[in-house]
Amino acid sequence: MKSERNRWRGNHAPGGKSRVEGVRLVSGRNVPTIIDVAREAGVSKSSAARALARRGSSSPDLRRRVEDAAARLGYRPNALAKAIVSGSSATIGAIIPDVATPFFSAAVRGLTDAARSAGFEVIVANTDNDPEIESKTIELLAEKRVDGIVIAPAFQDNPEALLRVLDDSTPVVILDRRLPVLAHVPSVSVDSVGAARLGTEHLLSLGHRRIAIVTEAKDNIDELLIRAEKEDVNLWLPAMQRLLGYLLAHRDADVTPDPGLIIRCEYNATSAAAAVGRLLDGGTAVGAMFCSDAALTYGAYRELVDRNVLVPDDISFVGFDDQDWTTLVKPAVTVVEQPRYRLGSSCTNMLLAQIRGLNTDVSEIRLPATLIKRASTAAVASKSQVAAELGAGL
After folding, report:
1. Residue 357 region by backbone torsions, left for phi larger than 0, else alpha for psi between -120 and 50, else beta
2. What rounded mean pLDDT belongs to the chain?
3. Full strand arrangement of the beta sheet holding 121-126
4. How far, in Å, are 193, 201, 346 from residue 367 at the CA level?
5. Burial of 255 per CB tally in 10 Å (0-12, 13-18, 19+)
6. Per-residue pLDDT tens for 264-291?
7. Max Cα separation, the chain?
8. What topology is assigned to 192-333+374-390 in CATH?
9. For residue 210, which of 29, 122, 307, 389 is within the disulfide window of CB 3.0 to 4.6 Å?
């Protein structure tokens, strides 16, 4: 038997008039409207609308007739029309570079959980860090009349679509990635400088002095320290902030980092593995390694295992983000953990405060990371081992 919807779609009277089980749709369209529901129930359009929305005073009998008519016709309320009338769609948009990564997937979970607990639904869009896709997504969400947007923006100098919705007074919160042109926009991010300091300071406290960092940052380390004295580092890219944290930890410990231990790579595991391989092939003395990103952590650790480098006997290892695999390998990996779920929920709460017009002085939240110590790091056993790291006698 055909479903009710299929019977309705399949029966059309001559002249473009549609019929459902003998009911004529006065709209003449394939989609029934509130006018069709009102005619079928024998009431006015306004009475039908009030009954379906359960607003105002409708008798139980009238409400039953209207609801029965809507069910027979397969009527669905026009969400966009409701949003225009009410001024709220009870939805927010979440624009994410890559929802498949552990960092952003956990953040999205925190975001959606907080939204639903407040009576909002979330439309999630993936941009692949493509500014053009991001622009089209923003325009689509604006057309859908979302009440606000959480976005981890693609790195670009002039995000025109985002600036347009901001000019239209659409509430927006920046997730994790602050850009200079968006410095005025409320944001929630992780303290990336502090996160890198945590991992590096842990290795320094264990006596390591030859500490490599696997990073996608391309910046000159001397220039980075000079810029940090003059600029707002919170507007830097996260990779730059983490490299700065690594350098500041060395400076505080009165240790001069070796530029040869800055392992540059692209933002993917394959590139990180290749970069670590080149370091090992070059014979550079290294006693410990810190990775500044989850993808780089996986690639670097895999390369060490493939080359039979013993962790932590040969190289102590600190990764970034507590991924599932980091506790399945032996030794389990010491990591700097970002508060990913809390990052997402905090974005939602900040956005809802804007949507509800609440007065708040908080326009920027930076959440601290935590260090989870496991068996992949160990203290330098002796002065001779320190000497071996430094490549000179003590």
Report:
1. left
2. 86
3. 121-126, 91-96, 149-151, 172-175, 187-190, 364-367
4. 11, 19, 10
5. middle
6. 999 999 999 999 999 999 999 999 999 9
7. 98
8. Rossmann fold (3.40.50)
9. 389
